[in-house]
Amino acid sequence: MAENSDDTDPGAENDEERREKSDRRQVPDRRPPSQEKSFPMNGFIFREHETAQEVFIVKSGTVEIIKTFDEDGQKAQEVVLGTL
Predict the structure, then answer these.
(1) Higher-confidence residue: 74 or 63?
(2) pTM
(3) Cα–Cα distance between 65 and 69 in angstroms, integer?
(4) Spatial contact of 84 and 61, defined as CB atoms under 8 Å apart
């Protein structure tokens, strides 16, 4: 069996070869560009238990994360879990 004069693994790819292969596997992004939305003060972006349809990034202002607790038919209590 012939010895490899190189210290590298003969089956190993160099960085450039790996990049070329990974570039070939990428699929172009066909999603439309994201849109900016504004929400009124004290309004809701979404409510607890709603199914998510999109992701939001807060560019300015603050957002409160609120959890609603309802114990056995008593009046629901809102607790602020955090402010972003």
Answers:
(1) 63
(2) 0.51
(3) 13
(4) no
